[in-house]
Amino acid sequence: MLSLPLGNTEKTTLFDAAYERRKHPLLSDTLERLRPIYSQAELNVLRIDSTSREVLSQRSGRGFVNRDILETVLGNLLECIAPGSHNAPHPHHQKQKFEAAIEEVADQLYAMVAQSFLAVADETHLSVALETAFSLLWELPRLKSRALWNRFASLKDPAVWDAYLLHTGISREKLAALNFRAKIDEAIQERTFEPYQDYLATLNLADDLAKKILNYQLQLVISTYPGWRVLFYHDVAHALTRSGPAADNSDIHRVPVPLLPRAISELGGRYYQADLHPETQIGDANLLEHPHRGVTTGQTGIIGSGCVIYPCTLGGLSVKVKQRHPVISNFVEIGTDTSLLGPVQIAAHSTVGTNTEIYGFVEIEEQCRIGSSVVIGTIRGASEHPGKIYIGDGVRIGDGTIIENTSEMDLIIPNRSQIPARSHVANDGFGFPRYVS
C-alpha cells in the first residue's frame, strides 16, 4: 500500500511499514516452498544483484519502472531458475544468503508491478500488487523445470556435438548414423533424461564419457544458446497476464498486470529478435533454433511441447478479437522463413518445410510432411466465406505445391495422400481435390 495518495507521487514510497507487514508471511511461505528445488551446488553459485529501494521507488517517464531495473530483475529471475547462468555482480551488490536473495527479488518484482499500476493510474489493484508479485515467485519450481526442459530440447541441434566433443574421439561418420532426436523426444515424453543417457551409453565410449557428454552439452546450451532464455522471458511475461489464485495456493491472488508483460516481451525482442506476444500459450521442451533471425507469435497463438521452431512468423489475418493466430500441437517442426497466418491448426508430429506459407482456415492432421516452398490457403474469391482445407493424417505434400480453396465447401485431402512436387490442387466443387494443369 502506498503511504501517500497518487496526487503526491513525488513523495510516494513503495516500501512502508504496511508493506513489510504484508510481505513477511508471504515471504516465509515462499521460502519454504523454494528451498527444496535447489541443490547446495546451485545455492553456491546463485548470484542475485541488489538494487536500492530508493532506486526501485523512483519513477520514470509516465510512471513506469525504468528499463535498467527491468533488465536487472529479469537477470535475477534467470539466476533463480538457472543459478550461475547470468549474473556476476560486484560482491557489494550481491545478496549472499538464500533468504535475502529471494527477498531482494520479491522487492524488485513488487516495485515493477506496483509501478505498472501507477503508470495507468489504477489505484484499485495496488492492494494486490504484492500478491501478484509473489504469485510469480510461487511458480519458480514450475518455471525452473520448464527452463530445464527447454535447455534439454536444444540437444536436438546437431551442433551440440561440436569440435570439443569430437576431439574426444567420436567420429563424424559414427555420429551421422545415429538418430539422437528420437531419443530426445522419448526423454521429453517420459520426462526423464534416462533414454538419452542410456543411448549415449551404447556408443562404446569410455565409462565416464557418456555422462560428461550430457553435462557438457547442457552447459553449452545454458551458456550460449538464446532460445531457452527468450522462452523464459516469455514465461515471466505470460505469468503476469494471468489472473486467479496461484498454483497450489488459493491464498495468493493475482491479477493481470498492465504494460509490464509487453515491456518484457519487447526486451526479449531487443535481445534475441524473437517477438513472442506475452499472451501466446507456449508449452515447454521446445527448441527455438536461431531465434535471432526472427520468430513472431501472436496474442491468441498456441504452441505445444517438444516443438522445433526455426525463424518463422506465426501471425494473424483478422483484426477482430477472436482466435486469429495459429495453433501448433506437440512435436511439430516449423521450418525457416515459414509463415503460418490466421487460425491455422497443425496437429502433432507434423513437419512444415522451409519457405512455406499456410494461411486462412486450414487444419493439418497428425504426422503430415509438408515440403518446402508450399502454399496452402483459403481464398476469398467468388465466395465471401470460403470453406476450410482439411489435410488428413500422414499426408505427404511435395515441394512447390499449391493447394487453394475458393469454394464455400470444405476441401478435404484424404488420409495418407501423396501429392507430387509442384502440383496445383483446388476444390472440384464437391469437396474433393482437383489437380489443375
Describe the structure in your own words.
The chain is globular, with a radius of gyration of 25 Å. The N and C termini lie far apart (about 70 Å). Residues about 1-10 have low confidence and may be disordered. The protein has 14 helices and 25 strands. It is of the alpha/beta class and about 425 residues long.
Question: Nutshell version of this structure?
Answer:
The chain has 437 residues and is of the alpha/beta class.
Write the topology of this structure:
Layout: H1 17-34, H2 40-45, H3 53-57, H4 67-81, H5 98-119, H6 129-138, H7 140-153, H8 163-166, H9 172-176, H10 180-190, H11 194-201, H12 209-224, H13 227-239, E1 244-246, E2 249-254, H14 260-272, E3 274-276, E4 281-282, E5 287-288, E6 295-297, E7 302-303, E8 308-309, E9 312-315, E10 327-328, E11 333-334, E12 338-341, E13 345-346, E14 351-352, E15 357-359, E16 362-364, E17 369-370, E18 375-378, E19 389-391, E20 396-397, E21 402-405, E22 411-413, E23 418-419, E24 424-427, E25 433-435
Tags for this model:
nine-stranded mixed sheet; seven-stranded parallel sheet; alpha/beta; UDP N-Acetylglucosamine Acyltransferase, domain 1; 25 strands; 14 helices; 16% strand; 37% helix; 437 residues
Strand order across the biggest sheet?
3-6-9-12-15-18-21-24-25
Number of strands: 25
In total, the number of domains comes to 3
**What's the overall average pLDDT, rounded?**
90
User: What is the overall number of helices?
Assistant: 14
Return residue spans where pLDDT drops below 50 for at least 5 consecutive residues.
1-11
Radius of gyration: 25 Å
Strand content: 15-25%
Helix content: 25-40%
Largest sheet geometry: 9 strands, mixed
**Class per helix and strand makeup:** alpha/beta
